[in-house]
Design goal:
- The complex is a heterodimer of chains A (102) and B (374).
- With 102 residues, chain A is an all-beta fold.
- Chain A has a 6-stranded antiparallel β-sheet with strand order 1-11-10-4-3-2, with no helix packed on it. A 3-stranded antiparallel β-sheet of chain A has the order 5-6-7, with no helix packed on it. Chain A has a two-stranded antiparallel sheet with strand order 8-9.
- Chain B contains 17 helices and 8 strands.
- Classes of the chains: A mainly beta (102), B alpha/beta (374).
- The interface between A and B is small, with 11 and 7 residues.
Chain lengths: 102, 374
């Protein structure tokens, strides 16, 4: 496992997603109520860009922008069918930077 | 106002010539007011707007987004808007359809029949002139067969009005011989009849309608069931025996039920054919049996708009369905833009079981044949 520095926390606005690429993997990073979450940036339904999705802070979820499929930010699971999930990544703030383990 | 993002349409899809047989205009009653040809009706519509319908459920219950899902991809109010929208979707030739699908469930025939004429005049003046590639289906007052026939006759000669647009739903079935007058003028003008899903939905006055709880049931299943009943009724009452050149397009009624309906109708009819002769039309023309099997009418007199295509997860199953549905003759591409239930043309290219030949039939040839577009 390698720790990757993604940037300053100010580059991750509250309540939205940011698309990053780590070791060639497209990842969507979200900051919701001060917590950081990271999911695969590709919706398994049709490949929609998850970082552009609509975040629901109360439900701690994000909806794909193309067809509205809703995914739990913490577990990566599809809220309608928990057998389907997006890959999740450990992400947080360390030493003043946002870091992600891969 | 768009509330979802469009799934990107790749260049390969854009390069193909695509006809869309169900591309909606979001015209409002307010925009139609200058085209309302009756002073009393106009005065009333100015006060009340769109007349109230019977709908008891809304798409807004079922999505986190706002609204009823009628503007999810955007809104088109005139021909320039249509040209902009087809560019986004990768469509070349839109056969524009009305967005006023709640109209048939409204109460007052005078108001809604007048609105049909206003809509058609609005389309002639504000939509078709924007580009030669735009075609349109004229909205007909289906609740009044005589008025529907008269409206077809009134607009049929107009350039690029290529079909008559009505609805399947909880309404009088078209096997009723009162509709023969409509079929006569459609056939005489070489125009197909389009039947689209409508905001009448499943009526609340039976236990099923009262018990339905979700949009998935009401729109997802209710519409195909109503479509099946309209299709079956047209066939079994001898409509195509009396009007052998009549063609019908079914929009948003679903596709994958075709094999079941075809062979269930055949099986049942062959076991129990005696009631066909006591349908009014067949009795009137003195026929005892249908000229052909029900499945033959289904596959030869009907075209089905592809949205909702409802792809099965296993691609080979979709290949089998296409074959069983006689897709090369029965399917014509539709996006249903700009509604929440919406398909970009990408699936026609992504599905490995759609051959080059079938793709061309689905994307343009079946629609061009149906509407007589050169």
């Amino acid at each position: 496992m390698t720790r990757h520095v993604l940037g300053d926390p100010s580059e991750f606005p509250e309540g939205t997603g940011v698309g990053v690429e780590v070791d060639g993997l497209p990842i969507a990073v979200y900051r919701v109520d001060g917590e950081f979450y990271a999911l695969s940036n590709r919706c398994p339904h049709k490949g929609g860009p998850m970082f552009e999705g609509t975040v629901d802070a109360e439900a701690c979820s994000v909806q794909c922008p193309w067809h509205g499929w809703e995914w739990d930010l913490a577990s990566g699971r599809f809220v309608v069918d928990e057998r389907q999930r997006l890959r999740t990544f450990d992400v947080g703030v360390e030493g003043g930077s946002v870091v992600l383990d891969l | 106002m768009s509330i979802v993002d469009l799934e990107p349409v790749p260049e390969r899809v854009r390069e193909e010539t695509i006809v869309d047989v169900d591309f909606h205009l979001n015209v409002t009653v307010e925009e139609l007011l200058p085209y309302v040809d009756d002073d009393v009706v106009r005065a009333k519509l100015e006060k009340v707007g769109h007349p109230p319908g019977t709908q008891h459920w809304t798409g807004a219950y079922a999505t986190k987004g706002e609204g009823r899902g009628l503007s999810s991809q955007g809104e088109a109010h005139d021909g320039d808007d249509i040209l902009e929208a087809i560019e986004q979707v990768g469509v070349d030739v839109p056969v524009v359809t009305s967005g006023l699908n709640y109209l048939p469930s409204t109460q007052n025939p005078l108001l809604k029949t007048t609105l049909c004429r206003a809509y058609n005049d609005y389309v002639l003046e504000n939509v078709l002139p924007a580009g030669d590639q735009i075609y349109a289906q004229a909205m007909i007052p289906q609740w009044d067969p005589e008025a529907a026939a008269a409206e077809v006759e009134r607009v049929a000669g107009a350039d690029r009005i290529v079909g008559a647009y009505g609805w399947f739903g909880p309404y009088r079935l078209l096997g009723d011989p009162a509709y023969d007058r409509l079929f006569e003028v459609l056939v005489a003008n070489d125009m197909p009849l389009a039947l689209h899903g409508s905001g009448g939905y499943w009526p609340r006055y039976d236990p099923i309608g009262e018990g339905l709880r979700t949009w998935t049931e009401i729109l997802g299943m209710g519409w195909p069931m109503h479509a099946m009943m309209f299709v079956s009724n047209l066939i079994m009452t001898g409509t195509f025996d009396k009007f052998p050149s009549l063609q019908v397009l079914v929009q948003e009624g679903g596709v994958n039920w075709l094999p079941f309906a075809a062979y269930r109708l055949d099986e049942f009819y062959q076991d129990h054919p005696e009631d066909v002769q006591i349908t009014e039309r067949m009795h009137d023309i003195g026929e005892v049996y249908l000229d052909r099997l029900p499945s033959e009418y289904l596959f030869e007199h009907f075209t089905f708009a592809t949205q909702p295509i409802a792809l099965p997860p296993k691609a080979s199953h979709f290949g089998s369905l296409l074959e069983m549905c006689h897709a090369e003759d029965t399917l014509a591409f539709s996006s249903d833009w700009p509604h929440h239930t919406f398909d970009v043309p990408n699936w026609v290219f992504e599905q490995s079981y759609v051959t080059e030949e079938v793709r061309a039939r689905i994307l343009r040839e079946n629609a061009l044949d149906l509407f007589g577009i050169e």
